Amino acid sequence: MIGRAIDVTVVDFKLSKKFSMRPSRWNRLDRVPVPCHHGGENVSSDWKDLAFHLDFRRSDTDNIAGRNRDDKSRCMDLLEEWLKRNGDRATVEVLMEALSEAELQSTVDGLRDKYPEVTGKSEAPRCILIEGEAGGGKTTFLSKEALDAVSQKTELGRRHDIVLLIRLREVWEGETIEEMVWDQCVSQTTEGIDVQSIRAILQRNESRVLFLLDGYDELRPEAREAGQAIPKLLSSKMYLKSTVVITSRPSAGVQQYTRPDCHVHIMGFSPEHVDKYVRQYFEIVGTAEIAKELITVVRKNPLVTDLLHTPIFLMLVCVLWEDNPEMVSPGTMTDLYSNLLTCLGKKHCKREGVEMPTDGLPADLADALLQIGNLALEALLRGETLLDVSQAENENLNWKLLTARLASVLKNVPGLKVLNLSYTALTPASLQSLVQGFRHIPQLEELDLTWIDKLGDAGMEVLQTGLSSVPHLAVLRLRNVHMTSAGMSLLTPYLRHLAGLRELDLNLNEIGDTGLTSLTTVLPTFIAMQVLDLAATRITHTGMRTLVPALRHLTRLVKLDIGYNNIGDSGLECFSAILPHLTAMEVLVLPDIRISHKGMVALVAGLCKLNGLIKLDISNNDIKDPGLECLAAILPHLTAMKVLILNSTGISDRGISALVKTLPHLVELQELNVSWNNIGDSGIVSLVQTLCQPRKLDLEQNPPREKSLTTATAPRYNTTLQRLDFGWNRGITGAGLGRVAQLIGTPTHLPDTAAMALAEALPRLPALEELELENISMDLAGFQAVVQAAEEHPTLKRLW
Questions:
Q1: pLDDT tens-place string over residues 71-111
Q2: Domain assignment of residue 239, given as a range
Q3: Is the residue at 726 inside a domain?
Q4: Distances (CA, A) of 206 to 3, 177, 179, 198, 240
Q5: Which of 114, 135, 159 is the last residue of a domain?
Q6: Which residues are within 8 A (CB) of 147 and not within 5 positions of it... i.e. 6 or more apart?
Q7: What backbone torsions phi and psi does residue 655 show, to the nearest 5 degrees?
Q8: What is the DSSP letter of 125?
């Protein structure tokens, strides 16, 4: 099942397959004599072909040839070197595969007769890792495999009904597997399919699903962290019965999460395929007569021989030879790269009508390339393979030039889906040239202009002209672009073209009630909207009365942020009336919206209907204890809650007492923040004790029948809490600190008895990730006890 067209350029390259087996089934070659002469087939004379299929490069075979006098010795040397390199991976199965690919079938048959228990094939693999250098054809191979699998031309295709090709460079932190499928594999025009139905389909057909994951090395670092979707898929923590094929550059870290059942290395072009490609290239461009001379030069020039195994470099060398043959054979590799860059620069200038100097590149183009090269080098030194221009030194880059060049590049990437220019120094003038290129990328789904504060309303006027060219845009991020109500009014009519908009971020723009009124004229048309961020946009209670009727239509809304606006109790009262209609809501962010406990009374009436709510932030609102008591009364209905933010809300021990009674119902709670309040010793002690003691619900459901409880029936402690923040509560004293062993705020001394109590308490919070003991002094014995307990804790990452 592939919902979108795939651009495929078929490249003929060789693969070397290494099939790993469980140790009990390994057939080590150091215990199997493999003759270099077998039957009527002379393996020795074909040892170079065998070497190629065993992953040896030309430089390796040259070394083997130089240190041996005859082909038989070279063949034996080759096998010994292969054994030494691959260890337990050097199996009879692998050798038989290589012999077969080298067309030495009679030798393969002889080995099968001698060792009938060896089939030459492994069990159906769960995970297949395909590795290769940059430009070696990994993406092309996986795209071809996707098409072949859908057509059931391959064994993988015949074993799977659902084939999902996912580009990992387009995966974001926190994105689920089902959301990736929805985003990358389902056509925008498909009706009746959403994330929930995708999850149901995948779970129902788990053993018939083939995941094709392209480019692990291009996966964002934050999306590689343990607990993210891709690592969980690789480590068999989800969709265990499905098959996963993943491509990556070597040493990118795939094996951190999985031990592949099958390891494939893309070697690139063989010498024969290099010759074949060169002939075909020059036949196509109409200068077949110059192909033979290039082949001769390449064979004699060791500088470029290994480079040409990579398809993309072979193509570039052909382009360079066509332009100027003398530039193909410089003295150093650096000179060759420089010649390639100059050649491509000249072709670019010719196409764009830019005047080209007789020697080198135009100064502005050379300067821009030098800056981009510097950024690329810094990224590589950080171990990153993706270049994020948002990290550039904005003031030093010629963005007008770069955007003009980028606009011309867009002509050649009509399938582009993500364009991230956040934190750059774009101006309305430089944005103008870029927007002109939008007509070439009609499939664009995500545009990020976050924190480009030079755009302003003039930038919005420029942007509006390009929105009609990208009707599939689903994500539009305009955070802090210095837009006012005037810019919002200019932009709004053109947002109508974006019927499939799923995320709109207008955070930190002064659009006010007037701009919001303009926006509400189109909001009801965005029925697919999932994320809406209107924080810090100067909305008042008047604007909320305009917004509420439009929000009623956004029934798929998952996250809403209206924080840091002067909404007040009256504005929140009209908002809470529509909350029961927003049943998909998972994240509600309401910090500093100027509400009191009266506003909370209105809010909880709607909140109790949101059974799927996982995060609620009402920080920096003066709700005091009555407001928290209202909230606590409905928390038993919000059992999916994972994050509850209550800092700076004026609560004291009275409010904490109400909260503590409901905590046993929040079985998924991961983060609780009650910092910067008026909580005292009794409130904090009660809170911590509740989190560390067996849950009341567990005791009710599993009453003790004997004096000692078994593991199966023992009541559980809170095993999900990762962060508890109650710092800067000035009512907490040293006495309270001695009982809970934690304080953030006023400096104090922690006695050994309290430190020991803290060390003993840590194992009761097995999901704890951070412990903050800032401004606290300890004696040596207590300090050593805390440090030892922290070191032995299974999940604690930070102690400070």
A1: 888 888 888 888 877 766 677 777 877 787 777 777 777 77
A2: 127-267
A3: no
A4: 19, 13, 16, 12, 8
A5: 114
A6: 6, 8
A7: -65, -40
A8: P
